Amino acid sequence: MKLTVDTDKCIAAGACVMEAMEVFDQRDEDGVVVLLQENPSDDLLPAVRRAVAACPAKAILLEQ
Predict the structure, then answer these.
(1) What is the value of pTM for the model shown?
(2) Span 2-63 CATH architecture
(3) What separation in angstroms does the CA of 40 have from each of 8, 11, 28, 45?
C-alpha cells in the first residue's frame, strides 16, 4: 500500500490522525497533515482506510 497526501487540499480537520495516529500527524503551526509512513504495513490497512474515508477534504490517496 502507498499513501500520498495533498497538503494544499488539507483543511486541518485532524480526522486522519484520530483514525490512524501511527500513520498521520499534524503540523504544529497550522494543523496540516504530515504523513509519517508512506508505505504502512498491511496490519494498519483498516485504520488507513478509515482515515481516507474520514478526510473531509479528500486530501489522502491510497494506492494498493
Answers:
(1) 0.94
(2) 2-Layer Sandwich (3.30)
(3) 22, 23, 23, 8
